[in-house]
Design goal:
- There is one protein chain.
- The chain is of the alpha+beta class.
- Helix content is 32%, strand content 24%.
- The longest helix has 31 residues, at 52-82.
- The chain is flat.
Length: 241
Amino acid sequence: MRINVLLAAAALSATVVTVVAAPTATPNVAAAPLHSAGAKANYPRLTKFPDAKIMTAVNALLAGKEKEDRSNYADCLKQIADMKQKPDPESWNSTIDVTYLSARYMTINVVQSYSCAGAYPTNGAEVPINVDLKVGKEIDWTGMFKPGFLTDGDKIGALTKLYLSHYSKKKEDKDCLDAVKQTDPSASAIFWLDSKQGLLFQPDYPHVIAACANPMPLSSAVLAPYLKDTALLAELKAAGR
């Protein structure tokens, strides 16, 4: 019964999509499209950037992500056909938004829902792409924080404590609250930048409790003792995040 309740909650939450327009800190930096959705949604590309080599590298990275999305969609259709079923509008959907864009950082938040003839569908899975525009590569968040922020072995990190405190202040379903207390949220963390909320964190929970993974904004004040990247911290502070 508990699993059914959580799956129902996941299906409901997947119907709510927030589109956030990305800020452009300088007229020399731009991307398009800022939003795309559907079975074959288009990943954005940088359309303006001062460094041509970085722009080429980032756009190649995003083209690769789009190709991977198309390949996964084709695999999904094959699985459906192998089960002698027909695809429908719920079979595959990607919603892609540029949620943050500055002269230094770019975040594309990809939210995927799919049902490929398996036992349970996947609804509203967050798969953000965070790019450091100084080097043209994806950000490795595990290396962005100082020791003590993420859980290390048996030592619970500050992020886990922050999330449990944040979650306990909400009026959540008891099953979800119990699941969150039993599963270390920072053991498999998802981070992404948002122009309105700053840095967001969400646990990457297993399928049966995925609906309990509420995103939590992390302010510059909270991040100050832990974030190694001073440039990002400065941006978040300047934006009042």
